[in-house]
Amino acid sequence: xxxxxxxxxxxxxxxxxxxxxxxxxxxxxxxxxxxxxxxxxxxxxxxxxxxxxxxxxxxxxxxxxxxxxxxxxxx
Length: 75
Fold this sequence. Notes:
Helix content: 10-25%
Radius of gyration: 15 Å
Number of helices: 1
Shape: globular
Strand content: over 45%
Structural class: alpha+beta
Largest sheet: 3 strands, antiparallel
Number of domains: 1
Number of strands: 3
Strand order of the largest sheet: 2-1-3
Order of helices and strands: EEHE
């Protein structure tokens, strides 16, 4: 049986001009664009995450990724 999994993907540009993403599994359905943008601003402003490409310096986009997962071999 397949299950649907949603992920909120936040994409940023880092100091070395590479794209970096932060994936948040099963985001709340009622999240607003303003709340997501505020979160992204906070991440950039407070330099919360270190990456191999340097600090996150610019918001690029946010997207909801939905995928279907079907287990083919039981765990």
